[in-house]
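We recall that each integer encodes one residue's backbone shape. We quote one record:
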Amino acid sequence: MNEEHSLELAESIARIIPALGKKIIRPTEQLKSVYTPLQMNTLSILAKGKSFTMSELAQEMSMSNQQMTAVINQLADKKIVSRTHDKADRRVVRISITKTGEKVLAENNKRLAKMFANQIIAYSEEDYEDLKSCLESLENILERINKYQ
């Protein structure tokens, strides 16, 4: 990709972020939960089926190891994540989501989906189809981008 195209894309992203915050992210913060958005994001990453070391998870979340350790400690205290020693190297501790954590994440996702559904019901059929198509494309693109990083 050339510099002109990357700048054009970056400007589009910068324009859309405030609208995403206002229409999507802020309303999710109104959901009453005993878990923070950061904790739920951590569970979402762990739910992909892979166990992580603290460093790997911190890197995936763009956080310091110290910050990530605090989040994991909170989740481990609630039995939502587990720590296990790596079989190949007992010095390495791997973090994974527990069955309880999977249930918490699923319940949270259902609540989010219901909240979004209540907003989307007011959309026209055309807006619904356009948004659905854009989100599917965005999800595919983000998956491909993850492979580059």
Remarks:
- The domain at 33-148 is CATH 1.10.10.10 (Arc Repressor Mutant, subunit A).
- DSSP finds six helices and three strands in the chain.
- The CA atoms of residues 51 and 96 lie 5 Å apart.
- The chain has a mean pLDDT of 88.
